[in-house]
Automatic annotation (TrEMBL):
Single Gene Ontology BP annotation: response to osmotic stress
Protein name: ATP-binding cassette domain-containing protein
The organism's taxonomic lineage, starting at the top: Bacteria, Bacillati, Actinomycetota, Actinomycetes, Streptosporangiales
Keyword Transport: yes
InterPro entries (alphabetical): AAA+_ATPase, ABC_osmolyte_uptake_ATP-bind, ABC_transporter-like_ATP-bd, ABC_transporter-like_CS, Gly-betaine_transp_ATP-bd, P-loop_NTPase
Keyword vocabulary terms for this entry: ATP-binding, CBS domain, Nucleotide-binding, Transport
Length: 353
């Protein structure tokens, strides 16, 4: 297949939405005189050289990106690439070394302690790999915990917590204790607790990494369902490409603290920015991720132009029956405009890879 880039960037559900979170030139350097690194010649060194010369680790290097309101924004990279540090900087659980973080007009880096506490209580929520449930509290009390800290009165607190309990499919477990639940169920409690405060942005740091593959798939579907139902902005860290492709509206790929690529799943798979990303996506079934815009070609003389019509964002796998059944090319049409055609040859080339 020869696709290098799609004819236009593919619209995702959240693609027209404005940014809720804007990050510019963000650095996190650990080590002696860390603040001297950003903006100096040291900033040009590779992570390994910097470590050797100064003893500093550049966990996040000059990161700039925006998260759009309502999208699932995935941060992906190998272990040690800086994902956790990056996301912790966004809520200042880790203090950034340099750069700018703006949440919906609020300058996070300038926020004073009290404002920061309010942000963490009301506008952000985090879900970690280790569920962090309080073992001596019932499930319902765990879900209500954040609300209790916010000072919400008992009756509304429990009514909201019960609503969240139902939302994550744990109806009937209100009085159980965490250790009576499976890992997957405990993480559902974690999800319910995070959603209870009605945050604007949910941060997930590899929340399903400790779960068995089948449960993990379950939980991914749960996140997709919850995202549809509550429509929250989600920043989701994972080192698992399958998880990234399944959940992400867009994916940011990190390597050695730096951003390598930001794009929709089909952009990352169809046009990897470098060998690191290429290696990541090597084993993906491209027909499951790429859309018709990646394989369509201009019509040629002799093409019958009265074949079936499909949109450019139809995933190739979904289009296969239509394409193979038709005795003429499928027309790829958006807003009444013919963008290209796709025939059996184009489809089979992808499937045969
Ligand atoms: N508190 C710290 N002090 C020193 N180095 C750290 C600290 N936290 C993380 N690092 C280093 O920063 C790099 C990125 O770590 P991390 O953000 O945890 O990566 P990831 O979440 O992608 O696995 C790693 O090299 C790690 O060792
Ligand atoms: Mg991590």
């Amino acid at each position: 297949m020869t696709a290098t880039s799609p004819a236009e960037t593919s619209p995702t559900a959240a693609s027209e939405n404005p940014a809720i979170l804007d990050v510019r030139g963000l650095w996190k350097v650990f080590g002696p005189r860390a603040a001297d690194v950003p903006g100096s010649p040291l900033a040009e060194l590779s992570r390994a050289e910097l470590k050797e010369r100064t003893g500093c680790v550049a966990a996040v290097r000059d990161a700039s990106f925006s998260v759009r309101r309502g999208e699932v924004f995935v941060v992906m990279g190998l272990s040690g690439s800086g994902k956790s540090t990056l996301v912790r900087c966004l809520t200042r659980l880790v203090e950034p070394t340099a750069g700018e973080i703006v949440l919906d007009g609020t300058d996070i880096r300038r926020a004073a302690d009290k404002q920061l506490r309010d942000l963490r209580r009301h506008r952000f929520a985090m879900v970690f790999q280790h569920f962090g449930l309080l073992p001596h509290r019932r499930v319902l009390d765990n879900i209500a915990y954040g609300l209790e800290i916010q000072g919400v009165k008992k009756a509304p607190r429990y009514s909201r917590a019960t609503e969240m309990l139902d939302l994550v499919g744990l109806t009937g477990y209100a009085d159980s204790y965490p250790d009576q639940l499976s890992g997957g169920m405990q993480q559902r409690v974690g999800l319910a607790r995070a959603l209870a405060g009605d945050p604007e942005v949910l941060f997930f740091d590899e929340p399903f990494s400790a779960l068995d593959p089948l449960i993990r798939r379950d939980m991914q579907n749960e996140v997709i369902r919850l995202h549809r139902e509550v429509g929250k902005t989600m920043v989701f860290i994972t080192h698992d490409l399958g998880e990234a492709l399944r959940l992400g509206d867009r994916i940011l790929v990190m390597r050695d603290g730096a951003l390598v690529q930001t794009g929709t799943p089909d952009e990352v798979v169809g046009a990897p920015a470098d060998d690191y990303v290429r290696e990541f996506v090597r084993d993906v079934s491209r027909s499951h991720v790429l859309t018709l815009r990646w394989i369509m070609r201009p019509p040629e003389a002799g093409d019958a132009l009265d074949g079936p019509e499909l949109g450019p964002d139809v995933v190739i796998k979904e289009a296969v029956p239509t394409v193979l059944r038709a005795d003429r090319p499928v027309r790829v049409v958006a807003d009444g405009e013919l963008l290209g055609v796709v025939g059996a040859a184009e489809v089979l080339e992808v499937i045969a890879e």
